[in-house]
Write a structure and sequence with these properties.
The structure is a single chain. By secondary structure, this protein is of the alpha/beta class. Helices cover about 45% and strands about 15% of the residues. A 7-stranded parallel beta sheet has the order 3-2-1-4-5-6-7, with helices on both faces. α5 links the parallel β5 and β6. It starts with 9 loop residues before the first strand and ends in a 7-residue tail after the last strand.
């Protein structure tokens, strides 16, 4: 067995029908895990699950749609996974929302609440639905996909940055709560990644030019460049890593 072997493990990845979540699902399955593809649209989830299963010639992925805004749907996601595969070893809280782009003075209360509910409260719900079985088995890895936005400010996506900073604190506190039961909680903080979610940032020529001029690697990242960190945090390679934030940003935060 290698440090990165995930054979026999079961993983839920939210927001995994596209972008970073999709890349993480493919890589976890590649390392032996059974993965649950989840996002709001069933057809999109089914498409990703089918692609993973075709790649491996066996059932390594199933699709269970759920909206992170619904506590009931998240509970159904957990219950359905337990019925299908008997356990949950790895949870990747990747799905998030950002319904507003502009200065914080212009965001409505409803928009602000949506950001906080979907990016913080939903993670809190889902983690506490999954954690009891992990703690009972004395084994589990919980990964929150945060952002370098949690480490800095922004004139255009401030509420999103606030929510991602809260995710960092959520991981640290839960790592402290769950640590004695050998359940690890960590964050990945991506920089600018070429996903549909971040398209407003990387697809704008002026913004992209400014980013590339300031970033040490002078480019945006690809979704698959986040997936390797998720494999590390999900596996025995990170067995003594908890409460941490791993920044994957091409060096942007050192400038």
């Amino acid at each position: 067995m290698t440090l990165f072997d995930l054979s026999g493990k079961v993983a839920i990845i939210t927001g995994s029908s596209r972008g970073i979540g999709r890349a993480i699902a493919f890589r976890l399955a590649e390392h032996g895990a059974k993965v649950v593809i989840s996002s709001r649209k069933e057809s999109a989830c089914e498409e990703v699950a089918a692609a993973i299963n075709q790649q491996h010639g066996e059932i390594r992925a199933i699709a269970i749609p759920a909206s992170i805004s619904s506590k009931e749907e998240l509970q159904s996601l957990v219950d359905s996974t337990n019925r299908k595969w008997g356990k949950i070893d790895i949870l990747v809280c990747n799905a998030a929302s950002n319904p507003y782009y502009g200065p914080s003075s212009g965001i409505t209360d409803d928009q602000f609440r949506k950001v906080l509910d979907n990016n913080i409260l939903a993670n809190h719900w889902l983690i506490h639905m999954v954690a009891p079985q992990m703690r009972e088995r004395k084994d589990g890895s919980i990964i929150i996909v945060s952002s370098i936005g949690g480490l800095k400010g922004s004139p255009v996506i401030g509420a999103y940055h606030v929510s991602k900073a809260a995710d960092l604190a959520l991981a640290r506190n839960l790592a402290w709560e769950f640590g004695s039961d050998n359940v690890r909680v960590n964050c990945i903080a991506p920089g600018l990644i070429k996903t549909d979610f971040a398209k407003a940032l990387w697809d704008d020529p002026e913004n992209r030019k400014d980013w590339d001029s300031r970033a040490p690697m002078a480019r945006a990242g690809e979704p698959d460049e986040i997936a390797g960190t998720a494999v590390f945090l999900a596996s025995n390679a990170s067995s003594f890593v908890s409460g941490q934030v791993i920044v994957v940003d091409g060096g942007m935060t050192v400038t």
